[in-house]
Amino acid sequence: MSRRYWLFKSEPEAYSFSELLSEPTQSTGWDGVRNYQARNLMRDQMKLGDLGFFYHSRIKPPQIVGVVEITKEAIVDPTQFDPDSHYFDPKSKEAAPRWWMVEVTARQRLRQPVTLPQLKADPALSELMVTKKGSRLSVQPVSEEDFEHILALGDPEAV
DNA sequence: GCCAACGTTGGC
DNA sequence: GCCAACGTTGGC
Question: Residue closest to C12, CA→C1'?
């Protein structure tokens, strides 16, 4: 089983990498994903020990700011059953939950965040999904080569 | 804040 | 099961 690599988008206004770092365990359930493709990746593909980039979207410029590790696989997203939650889904039943997530734990911070324009301009990253036009998927796969390449650009430090 | 690109919903 | 209408994402 080889480790796989991912990219997690978050609007920092909703949940930022700094917030993750200030969690007691520096971990969080990646809740609120309401897209089936992204759900399937989290539920079916992500395994313990996989690594992912933490990407800040909807800021100028959008950028990769950190690295997280998958520390729990395929757990039920509790917000779907919470009527007070923004992510409440009245059609989901506890016996057959519709939305799943993983737990991620912060591992590295990029001293030099890697911006979307940088990613787009890099010929080595021509296949990277997040650089494609209209790439809205909030949880995406990243190839090992691309991951290592971007990590080196980011000058990471352990957290 | 705009709006193109996408995803989902629901009438038929 | 098609597809128009609607809602959301996210770069710009």
Answer: A60
pLDDT digit string, tens, across residues A78-125: 999 998 898 999 888 888 899 999 999 999 999 999 999 999 999 999
Enumerate the nucleotides of strand C whose atoms come under 7 Å of any protein CB. Answer: 8-12
Pick the closest to residue A158 from A26, A7, A12, A13 (CA basis): A26
As beta bridge partners, residue A157 has A109
Each residue's pLDDT tens digit, A1-39: 689 999 999 999 999 999 999 999 999 999 999 999 999
Assess whether pLDDT exceeds 80 at residue A42. yes
pTM score of the predicted model:
0.96
* A153 Cβ contact list (under 8 Å, min separation 6): A112, A114, A118
Q: With a 7 Å cutoff on the CB, does A109 touch strand C?
A: no
Residue numbers in A 6-65, CB below 7 Å of strand C: 9, 11, 34, 57-58, 60-62
Question: A79 with A28: CB under 8 angstroms?
Answer: no
